[in-house]
Amino acid sequence: MPKNEFVVIEQDMPWNLQEAVLRIIQSVLSTTSPRKHINSTLYSASACISARLREIEDKEWQVVVVLGSFTTTCIHKPGRLLSVFYKPYNILIWQSV
After folding, report:
1. Are 67 and 42 in contact (CB under 8 A)?
2. In a domain, 92, yes or no
3. Could you list the residue range(s) of the whole structural domain that residue 89 is in?
4. Does any domain span residue 43?
5. What is the pLDDT of residue 1?
6. What is the pLDDT of residue 90?
7. Mind telling me which GO cellular component terms the entry cites (predicted)?
8. CATH code at position 84
9. pLDDT values of the chain reduced to their tens digit, one per residue, 97 residues
10. Are 21 and 53 in contact (CB under 8 A)?
11. How many domains does the chain divide into?
12. How far apart are the C-alpha atoms of 37 and 35, rounded to whole Å?
């Protein structure tokens, strides 16, 4: 992991998903440029992370990517909240139950 990346994965994330989630987030967000078209960047990242999580585990995933005061929107459904901090982003992931 490059020195400028800082990642914290909440303890309640299932251990078998931690590495996969980290790889997905790194691959999606390490190539984004938050300076240009921030809303579309966050929306695309959210959709991509959600789709790739669905490939790993066939559940309903909702992903919100937050950068400062900018955020994507989603309709929260009942489930477990898993959160990740990936400098400078916060990623909130809902996993359906």
Report:
1. yes
2. yes
3. 7-96
4. yes
5. 44
6. 84
7. dynein complex
8. 3.30.740.10
9. 444 555 566 666 667 777 788 888 888 877 766 566 778 888 888 888 888 888 888 888 888 888 877 777 666 667 777 777 777 888 888 887 6
10. yes
11. 1
12. 7
Please give the Cα distance from 88 to 29 (Å, whole number). Answer: 10
The answer to whether residue 1 sits within a structural domain is: no
d(CA 40, CA 46): 10
Q: Strand 79-86 vs strand 61-67: parallel, antiparallel, or unpaired?
A: unpaired
Q: Residue 45 is encoded by which pair of tokens?
A: 């990242």
Q: Is the distance from CB of 38 to CB of 67 less than 8 angstroms?
A: yes
AA identity, residue 4: N
20 domain-assigned:
yes
- Asked if 46 and 63 touch (Cβ cutoff 8 Å), the reply is yes
Q: Tokens at residue 30, please?
A: 């390490």
80's tokens: 């477990």
Joined together, the tokens standing for residue 83 give 């959160």
